[in-house]
Amino acid sequence: MVHRLVCFVIAFVAAELAGAPGICAQSLLSDSVQLTEVTIAARRYEHFSAGTRTLQVDSLLLQRQPGLTLADVLQQRTPLYLRSYGNGMTATVAFRGTASSHTAVLWNGFNIALPTLGMSDFALLPPQFSTQVSLQHGPSGALHGSGAVGGAVILENPASFTYRQQVRVQQEVGSFGHHRTAASGSYSNRRISLSSSFSRTSSENDFRFQNTAAFGKPWERQQNAAFRQTSFAQDIHYKLSPDQQVSVRAWYVNTHRQIQPAMGSANSNARQEDENLRLMAEWAGRVAGGRTSVRAAYFTDRLDYQDNSILSLSKVNTLQSQVEHERNLLPHLLLQVGTEGQLFRADVGGYGGEVEEYRFSGYAWLRYDPTTKLQLSLNLRQALVNGYNPPITPTLGANYLLLEESKSSLTAKANISRSYRVPTLNDRFWSPGGNPNLQPENGWGYEASLLHQYKNKKVTGTTEATVYALQVHDWIQWQPASGGYSEPVNLSKVKGHGAEIDSKWQWQPATQWTLLGGLAYAYTISEQKLPNAWGELQERQLFYVPKHKLASWVDFRFRDWFLTADATFTDLRFTDNDNNNWLPAYTLVNTGLGKTFDLRRVQVQVMAQVQNATNTVYQTMAYRAMPPRNFRLSLAVLWNRFKSQ
């Protein structure tokens, strides 16, 4: 199927290029300042997210280092805690002290979390260079459905119909056998927009690490940790008319990993291969005085694991569809209604046979702006799942402009939202241990924030401070059972609260140089009631939830040079429910220096990086070694043409 898709794309591009109009003007632009026109309607959630904290992840990281996974991007630019089992190994992300399965991941409107596990491995998600990555903190069940209990990661690939031709090729080498090859290309005119992206990353991962599980904490060489990953993405957007557009998107990722053994464990030669194919088609046009969208998607996810004694194979096919209609009921009242259907077919060795699950939901999103200072949103979703009765999930949010001056503004935001999570297929059907009597999780979230924006001729910046409270009923957690295996159970309640600060600034005193910087901080308390040695219930911080997490970055550009650095601080994390054992706090620093050369019709960019510059010894998961200081060198060539309007 993939080969047929590639052949179709090549033939389609060739036909369009043959009839493309001539390019009237040529220009070479630095990829660090280049802006691409996009369709505003693509970011469909922002209209209905009043009162919530949303964060747009800096796109420079993907532009300069195509092929990075979402695990790398979120680690360097956000205060989210990345739970990684090693470099290139399984990596998951959680918002506001929730679990990994409480984060929804949306790809152009569709949830791509594995229905078997209910979560996404961010090491298996290398987005293409044009992907817009945004984060929505807090519960958002009305917008994103099951799983959006702690937050959501939103990946969007909007179309651009400006005249453009662009090709970029990059090669990167580094320590421990690291290699990355990336290539991307795009073409667009007034009718068609095409975007292709390819990357291949591999590493031997044979770094030296300090074995904290052995006597004397000796330094050893990491074994059985090599990986390779190949990714290909293709987007096609075509305008049938000024009011109608069709889009086809494909994203294929193949990852082969040796499974890094834990310190103190024997090497069982474990290895895993993941193959993920995601296809979707969309039609959008004006119907009945509004805009209607029809989407359909097909996903296939294969996971093969084996070691010296175990062979485990699983394959899941997913069909999804969405129909939405949006229209203005009044000049300041916007309504969107929609329905969504999902079908999961899983063939997993641990189930003893193939299983199916159907899910449906209907939703309505309302945005009302009674004045220029006040924006309100009210969203509702009701899901139907065979065997379950998820609750109706409302969301109510508001933004109010408190102060507006010539250079700055101050906005107050507030939101209350309900969420839910349906038990995963593993929770229900795994044998032994699956529990078909589990109840769906449901939670409430409350938040309030102040957003300050400032802008003058030389300085631009935004700062947002948020406080929140969160509680989840019937939290599902796997625990040891009397039969010697584990089983999922519903905990009574998990609750948490915290504060978040996000600030981004840009200073450009002269045209030749610019300084950009950002800081994001999260204070997180997430607790459940557990008995102590005397049977008394006490509040305990959930394991692997740091109370403090700080991420900061700076980017300095002078003429054709750029210098970048990022630093993250992660507080100690408990590794058990009793809070008796923990991993120490650590700080990571990464730096990079690069230069861009203009060579007539192409640009050449050279960049050198130092990862873990302070040579920190750390673990994000207990007894899983992480790499020491390492180096990378990359060379990129960019060819770009566009037509002036």
TrEMBL record:
It holds the Pfam family Plug. SUPFAM superfamilies: Porins. PROSITE patterns: TONB_DEPENDENT_REC_3. Residues 57-152 form the TonB-dependent receptor plug domain. The keyword Phosphoprotein does not apply. The lineage of its organism: Bacteria, Pseudomonadati, Bacteroidota, Cytophagia, Cytophagales. InterPro entries: Beta-barrel_TonB, Beta-barrel_TonB_sf, Plug_dom, Plug_dom_sf, TonB-dep_rcpt-like. Keywords: Cell outer membrane, Membrane, Receptor, Signal, TonB box, Transmembrane, Transmembrane beta strand, Transport. The keyword Transport applies. It is a multi-pass membrane protein. This is TonB-dependent receptor plug domain-containing protein. Residues 188-612 form the TonB-dependent receptor-like beta-barrel domain. Belongs to the TonB-dependent receptor family.
